[in-house]
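so my prof wants the structure for this chain in the tokens format not the other one, which i didnt know existed until like an hour ago. anyway here's the sequence
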Amino acid sequence: MNNDASLGVIINAFADALVAVDATKQAHKKFQPGIGPFGEADAVRAALPYLCTANQRLFGDARMRRTPDLLLPNTWALEFKLIRPFGDNGKPAEHWSQNVLHPYRGNTSALGDCLKLLENDLTERKGIIVFGYEHTPAQIDLEPAIAGFELLARELLHIKLSDRIEERRTELVHPIHQAVRVFGWEVLGNS
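here's what i got, hopefully its the right format
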């Protein structure tokens, strides 16, 4: 296994890559410039060239797939989930937390992705990465949704996760999505 393949290294690199994409002031579709309005897969896709540049050894063979979202062959199978409490227009987004909290098998939430990873026969280590955007300071803090995800995973679905790893970056160009927080856990199995 690649020595620099810890989940902490991946989380840190992904946060930096999102900031690099944001700094280009590229607009996604008809939204305001910045990484905040990008959809989940579009954000990961936009970050991938920066990840490869920053750490060719770790990300050079990375490929996006349906399951997992990002495969680092012989190293990590990663699922990503985006949470965004506000839309591009500054209005609260309804149902934004269901992306992490919906606890049903086959669902596209972070909890559903954990179950999907556990059922998959991939030999790579399995990880879940949740990234989200806040105002600075946060008008809606992501922490309760993240803590809820951990509680539901552990207590309801009996999923064993590693300790949480988190990175935060501020001063993004978007007037609403001013800070990005990236959270990650290794999905270790069923408890």
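also thought this was worth mentioning. Strands lie at 63-64, 70-72, 76-83, 125-134, 159-161, 165-169, 179-190.
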